[in-house]
C-alpha cells in the first residue's frame, strides 16, 4: 500500500522561529520541502509506504489557479498507477479549502485524496503538525476512504472538501464544517470512523472530472452599508465573466448593487447570489432573484461558489445549466 505525498508548503511545513512563538513564523519562518517534512516524522513509515512527490514550498496565500491545475494533473497521473492507493497533500490552512474544493471537483478517481495542514509549526510547543500528518495517512490508507471525494483532515476530524472552511485564525479546531458537520473522526486508538458520506457529486462522478480548460475570471462583491457599483464596474472592466454577490442574509443587496448586477446580467455576465450567513449560507430560490437572472448559491462558501462558477463558465454552460449545477453540487 503506497501513498503519494505531495507537499505544497504552509504552516505544516514551516520550521518556525521560537518554541512558543506562534506568530512570527508567518513572516520570517522558512518552509521545508515535502521530503524534509516526511523525514521529520519517522512514525509515518509505520502507517504507510510513502512516495514523496515534491510540489512546492509555498505559503498558501501564494497558491494560484495555475498551481491547482498543475497539482490536479500530477495527482491524477500518479493515482492512475496501480501501486499507488491514495494521495496526501500538505497545504497551508489559509486557502486549503479552495484547493481541496477544486481537486474535489476535477480529479477523476475513486482513490482517497487527503489534504492536511497545521495551525502551529512542528518546532513549537503543542504543535498539531505531527498528529495531523499521521492522521492524514491513516485516513488515506483506510478502505472506507475510497469514493468519498477529497477530504481535509485536521484536529482528528475528517471533513469533506465541499463543506469545510477555516473559521478561526489560530485555534487548533480552525477547520470546521459549520453547516453539515464532519464526515467522521480519528479516534483515540487511531481508528478511522465515518459517520456519513458526501451526497453531492464529486471526483469521478463530477461533470468537471478531468483536466479543465483555464478558468475564466470571476470576482466576489460584498454587500455592506452604502455599497455602490464601484467594485462591479471595476471587475467587469478587468474582464470578469461572472460575479458572486455576497449579500445580507438571506441574500439581499443594496439598491446600487442590485442595479449594477442587473446591468451585468443584461451583458451576459452570470451572477451567483450568495449570503454572508455562514451557518445557513444557502440562498433559497425565489422569484425576486430568479426572474432577474440571479443564480442562488447552495450551502457552500462564497469562495467555493466562485470556483464552481468558474468551472461552469469554462464549460460555457448557460445560466440555466449553471443554476442546475449549483442546485446539485
Q: Please, could you describe this protein's structure?
A:
- This protein is an alpha/beta fold and 329 residues long.
- The model has no long low-confidence stretch (mean pLDDT 96).
- The chain has two domains: 204 residues, L-asparaginase, N-terminal domain (Rossmann fold); 111 residues, Rossmann fold, CATH 3.40.50.
- Helices cover 29% and strands 20% of the residues.
What is the H/E order?
EHHEHEHEHEEEEEEEHEHEHEHH
Number of strands: 14
Termini separation comes to 32 Å
CATH class of the largest domain: Alpha Beta
Helix content: 25-40%
Proportion of beta-strand residues: 15-25%
Per DSSP, the total helix count is 10
Q: How is the main sheet built?
A: 8 strands, mixed
Question: Descriptors for this entry?
Answer:
four-stranded parallel β-sheet; 329 residues; alpha/beta; 10 helices; eight-stranded mixed β-sheet; Rossmann fold; globular; 2 domains
Quick rundown:
The chain is an alpha/beta fold and 329 residues long. It is built from ten helices and 14 strands.
Amino acid at each position: 500500500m503506497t501513498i503519494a505525498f505531495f507537499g505544497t508548503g504552509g504552516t505544516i511545513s514551516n520550521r518556525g522561529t521560537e518554541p512558543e512563538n506562534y506568530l512570527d513564523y508567518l513572516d520570517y519562518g522558512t518552509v521545508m520541502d515535502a521530503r524534509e517534512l516526511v523525514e521529520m516524522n519517522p512514525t509515518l513509515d509505520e502507517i504507510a509506504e510513502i512516495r514523496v512527490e515534491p510540489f512546492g514550498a509555498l505559503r498558501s496565500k501564494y497558491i494560484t489557479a495555475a498551481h491547482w491545475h498543475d497539482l490536479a494533473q500530477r495527482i491524477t497521473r500518479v493515482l492512475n498507477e496501480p501501486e499507488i492507493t491514495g494521495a496526501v497533500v500538505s497545504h497551508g490552512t489559509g486557502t486549503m479549502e479552495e484547493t481541496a474544493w477544486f481537486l474535489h471537483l476535477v480529479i477523476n478517481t475513486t482513490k482517497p485524496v487527503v489534504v492536511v495542514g497545521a495551525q502551529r509549526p512542528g518546532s513549537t510547543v503543542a504543535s498539531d503538525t505531527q498528529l495531523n500528518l499521521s492522521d492524514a495517512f491513516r485516513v488515506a490508507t483506510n478502505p472506507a476512504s475510497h469514493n468519498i471525494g477529497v477530504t481535509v483532515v485536521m484536529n482528528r476530524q475528517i471533513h469533506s472538501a465541499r463543506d469545510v472552511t477555516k473559521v478561526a485564525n489560530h485555534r487548533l479546531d480552525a477547520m470546521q464544517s459549520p453547516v453539515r458537520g464532519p464526515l467522521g473522526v480519528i479516534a483515540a486508538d487511531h481508528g478511522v470512523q465515518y459517520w456519513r458520506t458526501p451526497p453531492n457529486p464529486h471526483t469521478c462522478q463530477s461533470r468537471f472530472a478531468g483536466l479543465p480548460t483555464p478558468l475564466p475570471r470571476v470576482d466576489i462583491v460584498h454587500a455592506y452599508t452604502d455599497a455602490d457599483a464601484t467594485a462591479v464596474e471595476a471587475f467587469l472592466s478587468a474582464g470578469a465573466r461572472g460575479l458572486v454577490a455576497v449579500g445580507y442574509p438571506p441574500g439581499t443587496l443594496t439598491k446600487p448593487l442590485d442595479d449594477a448586477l442587473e446591468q451585468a446580467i443584461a451583458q451576459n455576465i452570470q451572477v451567483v447570489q450568495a449570503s454572508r450567513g455562514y451557518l445557513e449560507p444557502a440562498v433559497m430560490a425565489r422569484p425576486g432573484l430568479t426572474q432577474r437572472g440571479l443564480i442562488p448559491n447552495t450551502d457552500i462558501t462564497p469562495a467555493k461558489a466562485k470556483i464552481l462558477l468558474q468551472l461552469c463558465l469554462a464549460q460555457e454552460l448557460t445560466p440555466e445549466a449553471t443554476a442546475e449545477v449549483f442546485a446539485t453540487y
